[in-house]
Write a structure and sequence with these properties.
The structure is a single chain. This protein is mostly helical and 215 residues long. It has helices at residues 2-25, 27-46, 52-57, 59-62, 66-71, 74-96, 101-105, 108-127, 129-169, 177-209. Helix 6 packs parallel to helix 9. The longest helix is centred in the last third of the chain and has 41 residues, at 129-169. It is elongated. The N and C termini lie far apart (58 Å).
Length: 215
């Protein structure tokens, strides 16, 4: 029995070891995800003082107007969803091109999470279980992808700024600035395509499930 237990525990140990290694390798991204989660918590807490008018005013930036998701067509839903993500990506891209802007970009996942937390907190407070179910079926899938992309983009912008700042104090310069800029722009383009995919998921979820709910 002891041997059987050791044999059964061996795969678990290997899996835990690989998990720790992945966390170490992607530690910076995990940290940015924690910043994002902090924004969600803060938004959920702040939702107690937020009304529907507040959500409508913040919709273009954070996609907080859930009533609009239920009523607008697929094309309009896609445009509004992608516009919100593209705005974050554009700001992060520009901040990553400056020497110190990447440090400001590191705060943007917090604001992305804040918008989501604000919307979810209001839904739960106003509609209870229906609001939670609406979040799980309509809002969460696309938002989960776009939030992860925003966190990755902010990390990429921070690294770009650090590398650019290092070029001022390091001689000789190890990396070609043009090649460094090219890599940065290609990464941001790929992440923007993932934002596009997140918007498609957002629209599909709204199309498939929003008709179930009547707020």
């Amino acid at each position: 029995m002891k041997n059987v237990g050791m044999i059964a525990a061996e795969p678990v140990k290997k899996w835990m070891g690989k998990s720790r290694e992945e966390i170490r390798r992607n530690g910076s991204f995990v940290m940015f995800c924690f910043v994002l989660f902090g924004g969600i918590v803060w938004g959920a807490v702040s939702s107690r003082n937020a009304g529907m008018d507040t959500l409508k005013k913040l919709d273009f930036i954070f996609q907080t107007n859930f009533e609009l998701r239920c009523s607008q067509g697929m094309a309009a839903a896609f445009v509004s969803s992608f516009a919100s993500a593209a705005l974050f990506m554009l700001v992060i891209l520009l901040l990553g091109l400056s020497l110190w802007g990447g440090f400001l970009a590191a705060a943007l996942p917090f604001f992305k999470g804040y918008g989501y937390g604000l919307s979810v907190g209001y839904l739960y407070g106003a509609y209870g279980f229906r609001g939670v179910l609406y979040n799980l079926l309509v809002i969460l899938p696309g938002t989960f992808i776009s939030s992860a992309v925003i966190a990755a983009a902010a990390l990429n912008a921070l690294r770009s700024s650090v590398k650019s700042a290092a070029c001022l104090f390091r001689a000789p310069v190890r990396d070609d600035p043009k090649e460094q800029l090219k890599r940065y722009l290609i990464k941001m383009l790929r992440l923007s395509l993932l934002c596009l995919a997140a918007s498609i998921v957002d629209v599909l979820c709204a199309f498939c499930f929003s008709w179930i709910f009547d707020f």
